Amino acid sequence: MIPYGSLVIYVTPKGRRYLKRLEAGQDWHSNDGTLAAADVAALDFGSVAATNAGVPIRIEEATLHDLLLGVKRQTQIIYAKDIAYICLRLGAGPGRTVIEAGCGSGALTLGLSWFAGPTGRIVSHDAREEFTRLARRNLDWAGLGENVELHCRDIADGFAASGADALFLDVRTPWDYLDQTLAAVRPGATLGFLLPTVDQVSRLLLGLENGPFAEIEVCELFIRGWKPVADRLRPADRMTAHTGFLIFCRQQEPSAEFDALGPRGTRERKREAARQARREAILEAEEALDEA
Predict the structure, then answer these.
(1) Phi-psi region of 215 (alpha: psi -120 to 50; beta: other; left: phi over 0)
(2) What is the pTM of this model?
(3) What is the rounded end-to-end Cα distance, in angstroms, of the chain?
């Protein structure tokens, strides 16, 4: 039996999917007919029920992926494919504290809450009160969020938590908040960022080069579906391609010995040559002063 209050997916023979909450006395109405709530509650997930018009409807349980697609939006949400990788890279899970800024409609907040579980802690921020209200509404709708703190706060004034295990920024100019970020996380914490354009990524990388950050990763994720027909298997005509650049790094104090043994690219060699030239110029100037 399906408990009342459950979020249910109704799937039509034509592939339309409807995410609805099963409530006593609230029948589901569609162009394919009506399903009585009491009849649905008497079934198990995976069953097929006929509407009063005789159209078969498949009854499925809502997954996290369905919840992410069903949140009410006032902003562009982070896609499910990105949310999954973000949660893994940040290590969101039981007993972990993760700070988030730029919660928007709360899709990533919902994913972090799911992964963190009852013993995890998610501290989310947004400068606009209407977004924190919407994020809370979406969390309540999904039956999640008991482990989430929502703060209407400008992160230029700092975060509402410290000593966090990880932190994620979905803001326009994350390089402006690196000092506040460092003050909010523990040593060795993982940091993540989402940016839509190459120029923004370059600006952030320049900020990260000033440290103390290491293990910097820049990536984007694509999903290409395939048409599931055994004798005509081929890629689908459309795909979910670029949705944003993901940048990850770790808070890491510099170590001259460690860095000296690492591989050096063209940029690093040029910077080291420039530093060496400056050192030699200083020494020559000092020798000239001594001779005078």
Answers:
(1) left
(2) 0.86
(3) 96
Residues 40, 57: Cα–Cα separation, whole Å: 10
Alpha helix stretches (DSSP H) within the chain: 37-41, 64-70, 80-90, 107-116, 129-142, 178-184, 198-209, 256-260, 266-291
Residues 67 and 141: their CA atoms lie apart, in Å, by 9
Within 13 Å and on the Cβ side, how many CA atoms surround 41?
14
The encoded tokens of residue 10 equal 């109704």
pLDDT above 80 (res 135): yes
Check: CB of residue 144 under 8 Å from CB of residue 122. Answer: no
What residue has token string 């162009």? 31
pLDDT digits (tens, 9 = 90+) for 98-131: 999 999 999 999 999 999 999 999 999 999 999 9
pLDDT confidence band for 220 (50 / 70 / 90): very high
Position 192, amino acid: G
DSSP H helical segments within 157-265, as ranges?
A: 178-184, 198-209, 256-260
Burial class from Cβ neighbours inside 10 Å (0-12, 13-18, 19+) for residue 127 reads middle
Residues 175, 219: Cα–Cα separation, whole Å:
18
Percentage of the chain modeled with pLDDT above 70: 99
Cα gap 121→233, rounded to integer Å:
44
SS3 50: strand
Tokens 């992410």 belong to which residue? 68
Q: Using alpha carbons only, what angle is made at residue 56 by residues 54 and 60, rounded to the nearest 5 degrees?
A: 145
Q: What would the two tokens of residue 28 be?
A: 């589901």
